[in-house]
Write a sequence for this structure.
């Protein structure tokens, strides 16, 4: 009798559980990465400071589709690279700095 009541209680509790739902959003914005950046250099996209350029070697920053001006600055604040890029779709665009002196 106790066994039957236990089974009934388990079935009642299992019937009361709500279904679980997960929603995922896929981010299809384009991304920018930096390559060959000098140590301690910083970069900006559209005059917004992003951070140290070396932090984005192998790591991307998402941007809105369209035209962007990417600037890389030396540790002393001197502009060492400027590039205008156009990105769209889910593309990853790599900004490669030409042989910049360290």
């Amino acid at each position: 009798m106790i066994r039957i009541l236990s089974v009934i209680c388990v079935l009642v509790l299992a019937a009361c559980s709500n279904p679980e739902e997960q929603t995922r959003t896929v981010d299809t914005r384009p991304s920018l990465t930096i390559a060959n950046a000098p140590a301690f250099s910083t970069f900006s996209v559209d005059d917004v400071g992003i951070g140290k350029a070396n932090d984005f070697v192998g790591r991307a920053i998402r941007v809105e589709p369209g035209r962007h001006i990417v600037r890389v600055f030396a540790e002393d604040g001197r502009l060492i690279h400027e590039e205008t890029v156009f990105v769209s779709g889910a593309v990853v665009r790599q900004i490669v700095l030409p042989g910049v002196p360290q």
